[in-house]
Write a structure and sequence with these properties.
434 Repressor (Amino-terminal Domain), mainly alpha, about 150 residues
């Protein structure tokens, strides 16, 4: 299924709208009310310029309309931080990513070890079966003995 930008932006506009009327949005964004109506209905895909105007009306960065609700809230909060706080947030994100990679590496390592253990077990079982068949099948000496007795 293809991504529907009109529908996504329409949903985001409605989610973020709060108690703003179409008229209020139109006035704040300096666009026509019919445009607002089409956007909210998912009938029009906004241009970058239109997203910028809507951002003014909604008091959010234009990218907020292209993100899910949580990411938009994070972005809005992040923009309001001081430069030092932004660096601290970035440092924390990098820490979390490194921690997640480390945990992922451990999980993958355990998976590799388990698959190697399973492969070794399968080889051992195959060898046991081969050994059992060899024990059950008559060897060359038993064939000679049975011919002598005939």
């Amino acid at each position: 299924m293809a991504f529907d930008m009109k529908k996504f932006v329409s949903e985001r506009l409605r989610e973020m709208r709060g108690d703003m009327t179409q008229v209020t949005i139109a006035k704040r964004a300096k666009i026509g009310q019919a445009t607002v109506q089409r956007l909210l209905a998912g009938e029009q895909c906004p241009s970058a310029d239109l997203l910028a105007k809507l951002a003014v009306a909604y008091e959010v960065p234009p990218a907020a309309f292209l993100l899910n609700e949580i990411d938009a809230q994070i972005l809005k909060t992040y923009i309001g931080l001081s430069e030092l706080d932004k660096l601290n947030v970035l440092s924390y994100i990098e820490f979390q990513l490194a921690k997640n990679r480390s945990q992922s590496d451990k999980i993958n390592s355990h998976k590799i070890m388990r698959s190697q253990d399973l492969a070794a077990l399968a080889r051992a079982n195959a060898q046991d079966m081969t050994d059992e068949r060899a024990d059950e099948s008559p060897g060359p000496s038993s064939t000679k003995l049975s011919r002598k007795h005939s």
